[in-house]
Every structure is written in structure tokens, then in C-alpha cells.
Amino acid sequence: MTGFKTGELIAQPGTEILAEGASASQLFTALHGMGLRYKLLQDGSRQVVGFILPGDFIGLQNGVMGEMKHSVEATTRMTLCVFNRSELWDLFRNQPQRAFGLTHIAASEEFVLGEMLAAVGRMEGLTKVAWLLNRFFTRLTALGLNENDRVPLPYRQQDIADAMGLSLVHTNKTLAKLRRAGIVTWADDGLTVHRPDQLAEHAVSVGKEIPSRPLI
Amino acid sequence: MTGFKTGELIAQPGTEILAEGASASQLFTALHGMGLRYKLLQDGSRQVVGFILPGDFIGLQNGVMGEMKHSVEATTRMTLCVFNRSELWDLFRNQPQRAFGLTHIAASEEFVLGEMLAAVGRMEGLTKVAWLLNRFFTRLTALGLNENDRVPLPYRQQDIADAMGLSLVHTNKTLAKLRRAGIVTWADDGLTVHRPDQLAEHAVSVGKEIPSRPLI
DNA sequence: CGTAAAGTTGATACTTATCAAACTTTGTGG
DNA sequence: CCACAAAGTTTGATAAGTATCAACTTTACG
Question: Please, what's the b/e burial string for A70-95 (b: 16 or more CB within 10 A of its CB; e: otherwise)?
């Protein structure tokens, strides 16, 4: 893998790392910082199709299909490990184990998108937001970025809205609900989860509340 | 590829080919017939995460991650080409170009899910339905299944609803709108598009067509 | 001919979007 | 250090889009 690596790249906040439709000659791995993947629709709206956390691979579609199918943007300052796309062939020829790893990454990304699709398509607002926050909390904790129930979350409310198919205003009000319920606090680019259990409870699709049966 | 193939399998309509969570030892390619991929949420609702048309690969997640992340069901009678999962590793070792092809398939599936996510998250009902029908029409036409502007479409309205995150009733009324507008007719498991231009117009594009696999 | 599955329709309730405006925070230059 | 601009957050009022419910029709089939 050492020979595969080409160099490192620093991306400033707000920078577009890869553009949809681009056929860049490079692939990346995120070393530090966070970013997001998104698509722009014809009507100007944006769909966030993924959040990039440290360790995530970037540009696989480009590497394998010759063109990016979504744009990638740095949310915070990011350090990227740069690979050369042209060396991808060599990897498939000479390092089947790593080639398999790449396929595994692709399949994993597909899996994550499937989960998001189910959340966006079938959950209601509160559940969507709770689900996403819970996901962040879990993933970031697994990355060792949890300090006193607080994980870094440098995104904006608009990002969450665009990810879950909600309007900014509705997302804001939903976040307020979770905050007032004392479940989470999201401020200063950090998410603090006071009641992990309740968050997880909201995150699982509870659906409609069962109409309470009158006590006779 | 010949040695890779294990045999053929016939799946009857309504049959579950692969179950979410299952770690079957087989992979498939759809030769004839159609099916769909779906996830079940905790509250019982269903999210369709993909439609399987002739030529589609089934079970890649299982092959590469050891477990299916969604279920696969035959909608019509299907003929499946069966592969053995255990031979996957041989393929990666000895046939790098086919291994690359598999990765390409995985990346393509990710791409399709991204498109669906954008549609489900950011479109309104009429646009969602028009987008999906337009997608069927385009893909099936590309498969040579178009006869006089009519393509086979053996799914039920519930499937479209579960794919686009709509209720059955709303989907029904939306379909009625497209029908009354003289744009499409969907009856007897066949979709006839009378005004391809108007259908495409309603289906605000999220991106481009599925790219064909590049020659290595 | 009875039954089950799928499609249709109208009435109603709820969720979410949109609009508009105020407020807060942050960064920048005078 | 303050004024100002820009970006982000918050809130209330209202409109639009969808879900839900319930009944009815049509079709397929043993």
C-alpha cells in the first residue's frame, strides 16, 4: 500500500474535493477532518448522500466508473491521503486481497445508502433526525472521538436537512424538540448526548403511537 | 466465467431469494423475470431499495460482506444463474478484470441508490412517480424489451409506493393523474408511455444515465 | 360463486414546506 | 474596539403535500 500512496493533501473548509461528473485522476482517504457527499438536483435542491468521517474512502466511483456520481466537499479542514487512479489496475492485478477490500468498501457504501434510503423514505421527521444523530454518535464514538458523551459534529443544520429530506426550518424545530426533551445538545460543532437510550429509542422507527386505550 | 457458474435456479413469483441477514453461500444473476430488493423497518413498513431486471447481479453484499443487507424477492417467475460464493476469492486472485467488474457493479449499485435517495428525499409525489416510471421505461427499453412504446412492468402500486416513500393511496392518485394527462398507461403488467417527452419533463433529472461498464 | 388480492375514490387529519422576520454568532476592516 | 456584513439559527403564521381511514370496484382463481 505504501507504493500506492502518492502524497497528502490539505483541503480547506468549504472546498470542493471532487465534483460530480468529474473524472479526476486521484482517489483519497480522509485522515483528519470531516466532509460530505452530495448531489445537486435540476431544481437546485441538494441531497446529501453521505458524511465523510476520518478513515473514509473518497472517489471510489471515480476510480472504478471513471466519473464521480456525486460531489464531495470538505466541511472542516481535511487532511487527505492521495492515491493515483492509474495504480488501481495494478492493485487489481497484483493485490487481490486489497482489490477485495475495495469491493468491500463499495458494498459497504451501498449498504449505508440503503439504510439512509429507508430512513428518508419511511421515517417521520423526529425519527429521521434522531436516527442520524444517533448514527453520528455511534460512528464517532467507535472512532474514539467521544469525550464525555460529546462527539465533534461540525455540520450545519442545513446539512442534516438535506440529508434526511427535510426543510431547514422543520429540521431546526425538530432539533429544538430533542434539545428541550433533554436528550441531546448540539452546539459549537459538538454533539452531546445526555440520554443515549432515549435517543436510540427515538431513532428506531417507532411509527405511530398506539392510541391509548381508555381505562374503564 | 464458465467454471464459476454453478447452475440455474427457477424462482416462483413471491419467493424470497435472499433474506436480509442471511449469509447464503450463493450469488445470482437474473436471466429472466423481475424482482425487487427491500428492507423491513422495525415498525413494519417496507422500503424498496431496488428493482431487479434481467441481467442484474444479486447477492454481492452477501458475497463480499458475508451477509445480506436487504431481502430479495422474485416478483415474476425468475430464472437465476447461480454462482458459488466460495469461488469469489479465486476470481479475485485469477481474474482481475472480472474482479474489477464486480467492483464496478457494486459502485453502480451505490450510484443507483444515490439517485433514488435524491429522488425520495427531494422530489414531490408526482415527480417521484414520473421519475421512477421514466427510469423503468429507459432501462427496459435499453434491454430491448420495448415493443410499441410498451415495456413490461409486473410490479404493484405498493411496490412503487414503498420505493418512493409514498403511501399506497397517494401513489394511486398520482398514477391516475399521469394517466388522465394521457402521458402513461400502466395496466396488465405493462407500461405504455404515450408522451415520453412529457414523462421526462415531469421526472426532473437527478443525474445522468447508468454508465456502461468500461473496457479495461 | 365465494374469496382474496389489487386498484380506486372521497373525506379528513396530520406532517412538513414555505414565507417572513428577528435574532445570534463570527469574521473583517476602519 | 466598534461597526458592519455574512452566515447560521430560531420562531410564528400559513399553505401545501401526504397519510390515514373506510368503503367500494375490479380481477383472478379454486
Answer: bbbbbbbebbbbebebeebeebbeeb
Contacting residues for B137 by C-beta, under 8 A, at least 6 apart: B146, B151, B191, B193, B196, B199
CB contact under 8 A, B118 and A49: yes
Of B18, B20, B36, B43, nearest in space to B28 by CA:
B18
Query: Is any atom of nucleic acid chain C found less than 7 Å from the CB of residue A167?
Result: yes
Closest CA to A1 of A37, A39, A27: A27
A140 touches strand D (CB under 7 A): no
| Cα–Cα dist A200/A209, whole Å | 16
> Residues B67, A56, A157, CA angle at the centre, nearest 5°?
105
Q: Which of B51, B3, B62 is nearest to B28 (CA)?
A: B62
Residues B137-175 have pLDDT tens digits of 999 999 999 999 999 999 999 999 999 999 999 999 999
Q: Which residue has the cell 479526476?
A: A24
| Mean pLDDT of chain B, nearest integer | 89
Which residue do the cell numbers 448531489 mark? A39
Residue B213 grid cell: 461498464
Beta-bridge partners for A187:
A190
Q: Strand C: which bases are under 7 Å from protein Cβ? A: 6-11, 15-20, 26
Pull the grid cell for residue B200.
421526462
Phi-psi label, residue A48: left if phi above 0, alpha if psi -120 to 50, beta otherwise: beta
Cβ separation of A117 and B118 shorter than 8 Å?
no
Contact between B35 and B111 (Cβ < 8 Å) = no
Q: How do residues A197-207 score in pLDDT, each as one tens digit? A: 999 989 874 33
Q: Is the dihedral of CA A89, A92, A94, A98 positive or negative?
A: positive
Name all domains of chain A by residue range, CATH numbers in brackets: 5-120 (2.60.120.10), 123-203 (1.10.10.10)
Position of cell 471513471?
A: A66
Q: What pLDDT shows up at residue B212? A: 41
* DSSP conformation class of B147: B
Distant-in-sequence, close-in-space partners of A174: CB < 8 Å, separation ≥ 6? A125, A126, A128, A129, A166
φ and ψ at residue B214, rounded to 5 degrees:
-75, 155
